[in-house]
């Protein structure tokens, strides 16, 4: 019983804090990936360069800094047309979906994760992201409805007070 109560309070807490299961990335990890890409540019194989760029893209879209996330999105958008395999396409679509989720563009994120799932329907990481996006959209809708209801209540209260003063 205590476990159920704890789980309930955790879910309520998560609802109000907006926490999700997508990991964050620190600035020093981004810097390390940037150094790795710079080293790879000095004569490594194209495959190794591509792997380094994917790691940097991952770090950027998982960063807490909005400018990093935007840079990661731009890198992934530019490299999307060069995806050689369905696995590469799946990875890039997923990271783009994370980037758009982090930047607050939930509808674009949802589109991308759906494309990703069309390539790999059983991929649990993408399924989890899809649920996270849907939960965020639902939560934002509920909060929006609550704000609208509160505004209507304040307006109705003000009108009732105004009519009461007239009479």
Automatic annotation (TrEMBL):
UniProt entry tagged with the keyword Cell membrane: no
Gene3D superfamilies: Tetratricopeptide repeat domain
Protein keywords: Membrane, Mitochondrion, Mitochondrion outer membrane, Peroxisome biogenesis, TPR repeat, Transmembrane, Transmembrane helix
Keyword Repeat assigned: no
GO cellular component, one term: mitochondrial outer membrane
Broad class of where this protein is predominantly found: mitochondrion
Membrane topology: Single-pass membrane protein
Pfam families assigned: Fis1_TPR_C (PF14853), Fis1_TPR_N (PF14852)
Localization: Mitochondrion outer membrane; Peroxisome membrane
One of the GO biological process terms: mitochondrial fission
Comment on protein domains: The C-terminus is necessary for mitochondrial or peroxisomal targeting, while the N-terminus is necessary for mitochondrial or peroxisomal fission.
Function noted in UniProt: Component of the peroxisomal and mitochondrial division machineries. Plays a role in promoting the fission of mitochondria and peroxisomes.
Protein family (similarity comment): Belongs to the FIS1 family.
Family matches, as PANTHER family: MITOCHONDRIAL FISSION 1 PROTEIN B, TETRATRICOPEPTIDE REPEAT PROTEIN 11 TPR REPEAT PROTEIN 11
Name the record gives this protein: Mitochondrial fission 1 protein
Originating species: Punica granatum
